[in-house]
Design goal:
Blueprint (H helix, E strand, L loop, with lengths): L8 E6 L5 E7 L2 E7 L2 H8 L4 E4 L12 H10 L13
Parallel strand pairs: 1-4
Antiparallel strand pairs: 1-2, 2-3
């Protein structure tokens, strides 16, 4: 995968207790993988222009964010899908 002038990007999402999911994207298309650790995933991707991880990191302030509380209330039985941001 080397299309789009060689630029590559990696999208990452946690797979709960089952490791990490990654999608590597470039001008040629995309490929996905499931690996046991974030370190393995980043090494697998190699040289990339950007990495995006689907979880807020380093929220300023303490306690639950109102947006998270309201989102959990709104989606009901799927409330565990809303992850709290870890403290900064």
């Amino acid at each position: 995968m080397t299309g789009a002038g060689g630029l590559r990007a990696l999208g990452i999402d946690a797979a709960g207790k089952h490791g990490w999911l990654g999608v590597l994207v470039d001008g040629d298309g995309f490929v996905g993988v499931h690996l046991g650790s974030l370190t393995e995933l980043v090494r697998w991707a190699g040289d990339v222009a950007a990495i995006g991880i689907d979880i807020p990191i380093g929220a300023v302030g303490g306690g639950a964010r109102r947006a998270d509380v309201e989102a959990r209330r709104f989606i009901g039985v799927r409330a565990s899908s809303v992850f709290p941001a870890p403290p900064a």
